[in-house]
Amino acid sequence: MSRAELTWFKSSYSGSQGDDCVEVAITEEAVHVRDSKDTARPGLAVSRDGWARFVRYAAHG
Q1: Could you say which of 5, 21, 27, 40 has the lowest number of CB atoms within 10 Å?
Q2: Is residue 33 within 8 Å of 24, Cβ to Cβ?
Q3: Mean pLDDT of 7-34
Q4: Which is more confidently placed, 27 or 38?
């Protein structure tokens, strides 16, 4: 699947004021992450397990 085919959505961890938004796209193999204001640059892709660990850590510090 190419980056153009990914379905992006605003992360629930993004700010509610719309100025600091992180977008994510989930595939079977990975979670893709990008800055919503800079969609021309390549984002970051991490394994689904790696993303789950990151979210757990972010939620519990």
Answers
A1: 40
A2: yes
A3: 81
A4: 27
Cβ within 8 Å of residue 19, ≥6 positions away: none
When divided into structural domains, the chain yields a total of 1
Could you tell me the pTM of the whole model?
0.73
Number of CB atoms found within 10 A of residue 15's CB: 11
Q: What CA–CA distance (Å, rounded) separates 47 from 26?
A: 10
Query: For residue 17, what are its two tokens?
Result: 């004021």
How does DSSP classify residue 24?
E
Domain housing 26: 3-60
State the amino acid at position 25 in one-letter form: A
Q: What confidence score (pLDDT) does residue 18 get? A: 60
